[in-house]
Amino acid sequence: MLDVFGSILTQMDYKGQKLAEQIFRGIILVSAVIGFIYGYIAEQFDWAVYIVMAGFALSCLLTLPPWPMYRCNGSLSKSREQKTRSHQRED
């Protein structure tokens, strides 16, 4: 049963990490602004907190797993390995 977990890809490239961080920050910011405005209009601080918590949960769902959109560019270590292999072939 543990072999199933070994087949899951768990790596992100550097551009994917940057994209995940930007998405995370954007969702948190938007949910905080919406939560503050709604909580102010409704005069309910609870709803402001719930909206921010929902935004946090959504951002975690979108950014914590290594989705394929975060692995599009290849990793820096792979490109370094390819360069060293090509230099070895030239010698």
TrEMBL record:
Keyword line: Endoplasmic reticulum, Membrane, Transmembrane, Transmembrane helix
- Asked if the record carries the keyword Iron-sulfur, the reply is no
Gene Ontology BP, a term? protein targeting to ER
Record field: transmembrane: 23-41, 47-70
Kindly give the membrane topology term recorded for this protein: Multi-pass membrane protein
Q: Please tell me one Gene Ontology term that the record gives under cellular component.
A: signal peptidase complex
InterPro entries per record = Spc1/SPCS1
Location(s), subcellular: Endoplasmic reticulum membrane
Family per record: Belongs to the SPCS1 family.
- Give the quaternary structure: Component of the signal peptidase complex paralog A (SPC-A) composed of a catalytic subunit SEC11A and three accessory subunits SPCS1, SPCS2 and SPCS3. Component of the signal peptidase complex paralog C (SPC-C) composed of a catalytic subunit SEC11C and three accessory subunits SPCS1, SPCS2 and SPCS3. Within the complex, interacts with SPCS2 and SPCS3. The complex induces a local thinning of the ER membrane which is used to measure the length of the signal peptide (SP) h-region of protein substrates. This ensures the selectivity of the complex towards h-regions shorter than 18-20 amino acids.
Q: What does this protein do?
A: Component of the signal peptidase complex (SPC) which catalyzes the cleavage of N-terminal signal sequences from nascent proteins as they are translocated into the lumen of the endoplasmic reticulum. Dispensable for SPC enzymatic activity.
Q: Which PANTHER family match?
A: MICROSOMAL SIGNAL PEPTIDASE 12 KDA SUBUNIT, SIGNAL PEPTIDASE COMPLEX SUBUNIT 1
What is the name listed in the Swiss-Prot or TrEMBL entry for this protein?
A: Signal peptidase complex subunit 1
Lineage, please? Eukaryota, Metazoa, Chordata, Craniata, Vertebrata
